[in-house]
Structures are given as structure tokens and as C-alpha cells.
Amino acid sequence: MKKFPLLVLSLALANVLWAVKCVSFEEVLLNESLDCEAVSVDGLQTWSWDYYYGAKISGYSSGMQSANEDWLITPDFDLRGSQTVSLVFNHAINFAGDMEKEQTLWVSTDYDGDVSTATWSQLEIPTYPSGSSWAFVDNVKVSVPEEFFERHTVFAFRYISTDETAATWEIKNLRVRATCEGEVITPTALPDLGDGRLKVCGGNMLNYYYYYDESSRPDYHDEAGFNAKTSKIVDMMMMVNADIYAFCEVEAREIVLEHLADMLNITAGVDYYEAIEDGINQYSDSYDNALKSGFIYRSDKVKPYGINQAASTAQYYRNTMRIQAFEEISSGEKFTLSMNHFKAKDSSSDAGNSTRMMNVNNLLSSLSSKAFDKDILILGDLNCQVDEEPIQKLISSGYTEQLLYYDANAYSYCYVGSGSLIDHALANQSMAMQITGAGVFHLNTYRSSCGTDPGVNEYRYSDHDPYLVAMNLGSYENKNNPDEPSKPDNDALEDISIDPTSYQKILLEGNLYIIYQGAIYNSMGQRVQ
Questions:
Q1: Nearest-angstrom CA–CA distance, 440 and 399
Q2: CB count, 10 Å around CB of 258?
């Protein structure tokens, strides 16, 4: 028996968490290197690495088929206490013989470097390729039985060829995922959302493209980059476990969120996540139509109510400003959700404020005529802070900023070393009464100049943090009346020491107030001085 050195081009491990006790994790292998052990039992050929095709082996060489037995063995995993363990991978087989005997998957809990002395059990591969082409079958999922949840568990792909059949087997994008009851992979704490039955997650996906090779916008330009970003977004979705996801800055085609919903289903081992059909399929990458906002939802918890609509007629913003109502299946209660991406700041004299005011006016007009339910929640990257004119226009129209209501220090974006709240969750009065909590999940900024742990952020997929809102539809609690903002008396205001550069949260006369950049707001986000 002979072992071959690993061909380690670069290590690309995502969210690797090693521990003696159970810890939820996902390890990505066969993505950018042959980061598994190649062991040859018989024959001259062995596993090797190819940048395009992944881990690769063939018993055919120099015009001849030859007998081989070769194993590709993962690192060992501590799976004790795991609730579920699964393997997901892509593979292709050409020139096949009997694939179910010659290209197989195995597991061992006592492997010590010698495949001949280890105890191996075969795991069924549920989907094989055709065996006669180079076409990959993607996202093949293998569930691992609980009896193999041990301290030193390894998985192995076993290849056999003969003098009569010598297939070529290619494997890539292997993911080993373990989940533990009551545990998730969290680099920083999730916000406290109270006891809400429904949870909504919003976020800017930073140029998330399915057809990345047709655009210069994404920061990835190959399949590995696309898969890596998809994996990180799915990780976030698994962590927050929302019932509705509202995303902006994704490619303006339906397949993008459909693919993301499929990946979430595969990773979670369920089949109920679906993308809202919006009919947006732009085949030109011009600035005017390249991006959109859209929704993914749990079909066992909610269902679409009414149709998906644009909140603007402007060519660019008709895709990025969207309205969709949902109905909670268990209660029959409904609400209207609006996801938006307003004009970014620029170098003009008003830094794009006039366009954002157009965005706000279009949004308010559309919600007044297109909302399928009177309870309205506005989400999105609105590219301005709470004291700026567009947000103040929404507040004066009866909407309250929920992220600041529940956390006066909320921020979602880091710029020049300081945190800014430019992503928002605004609710009208009837909607606000049903909200139990809201907050920002600092997944993308927790290792940054705004965070407490500067350094490489292995979780980061965007420059904006995701944010969450939880609600009990139909349960109305009388929060502050947005038409009558509470206001401290002048003597109390004069005694306040205001820091004009940051958020402050103070209690005056039994009421909560927020000081933000020199202005004072009540707990509903309304300016009182």
C-alpha cells in the first residue's frame, strides 16, 4: 500500500468549528484543493486535483484500462451529540461500468491511517450521473445514520477500475454539515426578538448573481466563488431561521432566488422554502435593470397574498422597490411587506437626496393604492440615516423605525470606522403594535472597524448586516401613539449632555429617548428636538 502527498493548492474551509462536544458546523472540501487524503490500495493511478473538475481519478491511461482501488478520505470529524449529519457534493462519471459497485461512499469511526484495518460501512449514494458523459449531478445529499456520530468519524469515496472498465470519476464542492439540537453557528449573538410567531429577515446581498460570467458587478467570477457566496448566505439563513427573507441587490432574474431557496432546502433537509414569482427576467446588464429585490418564504408557515408589485414606475426602481403581502397560515392574519433599495449617495451637490425623496414619494403613493393589507412593514437599504429627509418623510407619514425602537445603538453598515443605520425596518401604527422585537445581526460587520474583533471575517458575504423583525399577527399592543410623540419638558432637555457623533439612549420622566447626531427622538423614531 502506498500513500500520495496531498495536492494542497489553497485551503478553503468555511465555518469550521472543532470541539469536543457537539457544535453545529459546515466544512467545505474539494472546493479549491484536494484537501482530503488520497490512498492507493492497488494500481498505478490515484486521486488528483483539477481546478475545473475537482477531485479526479481514472484507471484509463496511455490507451489502456487497468485495475485500481483508490480511496479519497476526509479529515475526521467529532460528531458526538449531533442531531443531523449530512454530506452534499457534486459528481460526474464517464465511461462507467457498474457505478453502484465501483464508485461508492463509505464511513468509518476507527480509521487510523490504514484502510485495510479500519471498519467501513457503505453509505448509499442516492443519485448517480448518467455514467456516459461529463455532466455533473449537483447537490447530491447523503444523510448519515446516527450510529456513526462518533468522535473520529471519516468519510471516503472508493474507486475501483478493472481491465475491462475504467471510469473517470470527478467530485467537487463536498460539504459536511452537522447540526445540534438548540445550537447554531453564530459568530455573534442574534438579536432578542421577543416571542413573535413570525420572523422576517431583510438584507442587502451585495451583487448576488447567478449568471456571474455575464456581469462585472459580482466580486466572484467563477463557479467556486458563486458557490462560496451561496454557502455563506445559506449559513446566515440557517442561523436566523426566518419565515420570510426579503433581499435586495440580487440579479434581476427569477432563477437567482429560486436557486437560493433550493440550496436552503437541501442544506436544511426540508422542502418548504420557495421564492416568490415576480416575473423579473432582465437579460441586459445595464445599470437601469441589472438588480432587483425579492422574497423567499416558508410555505408551511405563510403563503403569498395578492400579487407581487412594483412600488415605482422608474426603470431602475421598478425592480428594486417591490411590494408583497403574506398570510399566516395558522391564523389567517395578513400583512404587507415592502422591500426596497433606494438611490445610493453620490458626489452631486445633494448626494442623491432628491432621488431618494422620489423613492419615498413613489413608495408611499404605491402603498396607499397597492397594499393588499393595511398592516405595512417597509424594509430595505434606504441609503440614508434616520435624521435625513427621506426617513423623516416616512416617519411624518406614520411609520416608525423598529430597529432603533428596540436598540438605540443599532447600526447595519460600517463606514470610515463608524457604524451607520442605513438599512431600515419601518412599520405603520397597526403593524408596529404587532411587532415583538427587531434588531440587526452583526454577521458581516462583527470583524470590522465597527466591531469588537477586527480581522478576517469568514462569515461575511456582504457589506451590510442582515436585520430581523418578529411579530404576532393579530395581537395588538398599544405602543406610543405616532401621532402624539412623547416629549420631555424644556428643563429636562437642557440638562442632557449630547454627544453629536454617536447614538445615546436615555430615560427621562420614565420615557425612552434616542439622541442621534445631535437630535433627540422618541422611542418610535420621531424627532422631538
A1: 19
A2: 17
Q: Are the C-beta atoms of 401 and 386 separated by less than 8 Å?
A: yes
Lowest mean pLDDT across 6-20, 159-173, 322-336: 6-20
As a residue count, the chain comes to 529
pLDDT at 478 over 50: no
Q: In what order do the strands lie in the sheet with 121-123?
A: 2-3, 37-42, 68-73, 154-161, 103-108, 121-123
Strands 302-310, 322-328: pairing is antiparallel
Predicted TM-score (pTM) above 0.85: no
3-state secondary structure of 353: helix
Which residue would you say has higher pLDDT here, 252 or 180?
252
Residues 6+ apart with CB under 8 A from 70: 38, 39, 40, 41, 43, 45, 46, 47, 57, 158, 159
Same domain, 427 and 489: no
- 285 within domain boundaries: yes
Residues 115 and 214 grouped into a single domain: no
Q: Give the confidence band of 151 by pLDDT, cuts at 50, 70, 90.
A: confident
Ordered strands of the 376-381 beta sheet = 302-310, 322-328, 334-341, 376-381, 423-428, 399-401
Distance between CA atoms of 518 and 149, rounded to whole angstroms? Answer: 56
Whether residue 298 sits in one domain with residue 447: yes
Please choose, from the candidates 293, 278, 282, the residue with its C-alpha nearest in 3D space to the C-alpha of residue 247: 293
User: Which residue, chain included where needed, has cell 448518467?
Assistant: 130
Residue 508: predicted pLDDT: 65
Report the pLDDT value the prediction gives residue 522, as an integer from 0 to 100.
Answer: 67
Enumerate long-range contacts of 107-111, CB under 8 Å, 24 or more apart.
107/144, 107/148, 107/153, 107/154, 107/155, 107/156, 108/153, 108/154, 108/156, 109/148, 109/150, 109/151, 109/152, 109/153, 109/154, 110/152, 111/73, 111/76, 111/152, 111/154, 111/156
Domain co-membership, 75 together with 206 = no
User: Cα–Cα distance between 180 and 183 in angstroms, integer?
Assistant: 5
Q: Is 48:35 a contact under the CB 8 Å cutoff? A: no
Strands (E), 402-451: 413-415, 418-420, 423-428, 435-440
Give the count of beta carbons closer than 10 Å to the beta carbon of residue 277.
14
Mean pLDDT of 32-55: 90
Give residue 280's domain range.
Answer: 198-479
87-113: average pLDDT: 95
Arithmetic mean of pLDDT, 199-225? 93
Provide the terminal-to-terminal Cα distance of the chain, rounded to the nearest Å: 80
Judged against a pLDDT cut of 70, whether residue 341 lies above it is answered with yes
Question: How large a percentage of the chain has pLDDT more than 70?
Answer: 82
Number of independent structural domains in the chain: 3
CA 305 distance to own-chain centroid: 24
Following DSSP, what letter does each residue of 361-391 receive, concatenated?
A: HHHHHHHHHH-SSS-EEEEEE-SS-TTSHHH
